[in-house]
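Final report, section 2: Outcomes. Of the targets proposed, Multidrug efflux pump subunit AcrA (Membrane-fusion protein) is the one most frequently requested by collaborating groups, and we therefore present its record in full.
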Amino acid sequence: MNTSEIKKPILDRKKRILDLAKVFFGVIIFLTFFSKSFYSWTLPKVRTETISSGSLAKEITGNGIITAKERIEHYVSVRAQVKDIRVSVGDEVKKGDVIMVIDKGDLEKELERNNIELLELKLQYDRLVSHRDSYLVKDYEKRMKELEDDIYYKEKDYLLYKELYEKGLESRYNYELKEKDYNDVKSKLENLKEELEREMENSSRDIEAAKLDIIKKELDIRDIEEDIKNCIIVAPSDGIVKEINFKKGMMAYDSVPAYVMDNMKSGFEMKVDLNSELCKYISLGDQVEIRIKNQGNKIIDGEIKAISDKQNDYRIKIVTVELEDADLSGGEAGELYLRKKVGSYDVIVPRSAVKKDSQGEFVYVLEEKEGPLGVEYYVLRKSVTIGDSDNNYVGLRSGLLGNETVVVYSNKSLDDGCQVILEK
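The predicted structure is given below as tokens.
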């Protein structure tokens, strides 16, 4: 056996050992990196943003329907049949244009009856005045004249008997009899005067009542004449007809308007329901943009004229926007837009960065550390005091210095001090 044959098994064994060593170290390296990758897959994945200073602006939007500032609702004053309708919903009318005609036949008959009743009331009034002036006064004046004449003679007899009685020439009985006759006739005259006064008062009351009946009847007639005049219903101003609530041949009644019309000359407005919290940033006189959705998103300017509470809902307020002159007809759908500066802060963070629990508001701040295999990332909880906010950012009054990086998104829940990986 030569030397080469002896060395060959030794070399083969060394080669096998070397190959095994390569495999072993390869597996170790693979497992090291694989375990790190596997561990990384279990960590929360976060997205971050560097904080900054700046101003906040609240963007407020809301929807509403544009209407004329003055809406006219016409109610008929009588129940009568609709004879004719001259317009349709959506028609533009001028002041004085005929909108609807109501049948006036029944009203004309009622007017005739009331005129006859008025004539009867006037005749009754004349009779009462004539009775007072021609009969009552003259009758009592005649009776009082007769009593006054009787008093004159009775007084003379009484005075004569009194003188004779005082001289002892006449009996006391006859004297007292004459005195009684005199006093009786005087009482009759006083009673008659009182009776006349009562009769005159009663007569005056009857006359005044008759006069009031005439006045009331004249007012009734005037109302009927006005109703007849109003049977031809005309537009009180230029406008657009929005509703016609009766049809030809129907009975018109006063529980719903016969027509509804928008006064074009009054201008237009839009009412928007907004959250009460948003309304804290709105003031009367603020200029806003209104986007007209059914006119190709045309934008017109507006001004906030009123902010009022919504009935039975304290969470909502009604904001009234007065619109500038534009080609509007009412009924258009509009969208309000207002951007309002609400404050400047040394530190502002995205709204998504601010969290809240039982301890208050906080953010997660990103921190870097050197690990065995490179840079590792951790998050630290920082309590903050928030101020104003807009649609995207929140102003912080305290809690951060201004050079931190905050977490704005995480695919898993976070804890103070936990390790994370950055989203690429």
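The radius of gyration is 53 Å.
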